[in-house]
Amino acid sequence: MHAFDYARPGSLAEALALASNGRRALFLAGGTDVIVQLREGRRSCDLLIDLKHVPELTSITVGPSGALEIGAAVALAEIYEHPVVRRDFPALVDAASIIGGIAIQSRATLGGNLCNASPAADSSPALMALGATLRIAGPAGERTLPVADFFVGPGQNALQPGEILVSVRIPPLPPRSAAFYHRFIPRNEMDIAVASSGVCFALDDAGRIADARVALGAVAPTPILVPAARDALLGREPGAEAFAAAGEAARAAARPIDDMRGSVAQRRHLAGVLTVRALENALRRIRGAQ
Hints:
By secondary structure, this protein is of the alpha+beta class. Helix content is 33%, strand content 24%. The protein has 3 domains: 5-50, Uridine Diphospho-n-acetylenolpyruvylglucosamine Reductase, domain 2, CATH 3.30.43; 55-170, Uridine Diphospho-n-acetylenolpyruvylglucosamine Reductase, domain 3 (2-Layer Sandwich), CATH 3.30.465.10; 177-289, CO dehydrogenase flavoprotein, C-terminal domain (Enolase-like, domain 1, 2-Layer Sandwich). Helix 10 (240-253) packs antiparallel against helix 11. The mean pLDDT is 94. It comes from Tepidiforma bonchosmolovskayae.
């Protein structure tokens, strides 16, 4: 590990000023990724900026409409233990509660998991299915970006020099809707997804699917939305036939690689299977709330 300076800003303005001073800077939210990468020499910096003391990045708020806003430096355990998250956004609990082990979750953050931009990250497909957007601040001001547009390659995100991911915003789910996140791993815990699927859909008054989103992880260079799976669901009654069509669309959209954790054929197969199972579980959540 190379020597670097450490800074602990107390405001977003101070953090942005530090990030724009011309030095090679990295951000520390939870540190479970960046500290390991620095230690192993995979990344280097002149300045490490600790974001854990910036109020905008360390709070969870619920708006009047029911929208949820989570600071990028909020620990995963704080997210999945939050009563509103558990009640209204259980798909986020599905994802946040399986990233690493309990000790990791008390430190690791949602924003850090996103910024690390792993194709196999658990938070990404769940947030994409939920229609989440990101609040980003930088030298040119603030901008909003859908989570689906945040990933540009393996380990690469859309942040520009000097920009900071401030928060994640999840809109309220409409009535008669639910989401679910499901993954496959070789072991029982603390493993990386071989493939994963996040889904969300809403029913109209006639009980047909009025809107839907399907997102996949670990089967392409980045997490991906599958518009063809959405098209396969729209206007249909939720059930085996519609879900199988969406699963086939997900399988066809997968662009995986072979590696030590899974083959191309296995990952394509899993993309379909996991999508069907996630849709089935989302439907159970809708029916359980009725």
